[in-house]
UniProtKB/TrEMBL annotation:
This is Glutathione S-transferase. Residues 86-207 form the GST C-terminal domain. Keywords: Transferase. It comes from Acinetobacter gerneri DSM 14967 = CIP 107464 = MTCC 9824. Belongs to the GST superfamily. It comes from the Bacteria. It holds the Pfam family GST_N. InterPro entries: Glutathione-S-Trfase_C-like, Glutathione-S-Trfase_C_sf, Glutathione_S-Trfase, Glutathione_S-Trfase_N, GST_C, Thioredoxin-like_sf. Residues 1-81 form the GST N-terminal domain. One of its GO terms (molecular function) is transferase activity.
Amino acid sequence: MLKVLGRSDSINVRKVLWLCDELNIEYDREDWGRGFRSPKEAEFIKLNPNATIPVIIDADLVLWQSNSIIRYLANQYQGQALYPETAKPRALIDQWMDWQALELNHSWTYALMNLFRKSPDHQDPNLVKKSINAWTENMGILDEQLAKTGAYIIGDQFTLADIPLGLSVQRWYLTPFEKTEFHHVKKYYELLSQRAAYMKWGNNGQN
């Protein structure tokens, strides 16, 4: 059986758990990370030298990096409806997954650490403002894309890319600051909330 290592309130672990529910993949999960066993322990470092969660163990495969994990799971467990084998739709899915990881994720980091995590290392108001501005700009890019598709991130069908982006939208709404209202992002949030797995792992009050 698939083993998932990581605490269930981690946004990156929730990517994996959400997909497992979508594909009916059975798994065992162990708590690792903040508040639980440290991923800096030697046992964990042997699995992932970066000391980050999640990690999966699937038979003889050990895999880290959440987007790599969900791509693998979709490939391995008949998830072609979410991650097609044909090049063009797969490239679009990968594009938006990478954008979430590289652009959107990095833009919110300082603001999230200040406003939600209350980190003592993130108390510069100018950097908070800069982070909020970058985050808002990226949410505007997301809103424009959703206006084009009228539904999910690459079209009228739910795909693998909607998992990291759906969790990102939840984070946007839960982080406490005055926000620009993005109509299409809100519709997307409501559309995703019709999925049982999103209500369990996305729209569940976890940030």
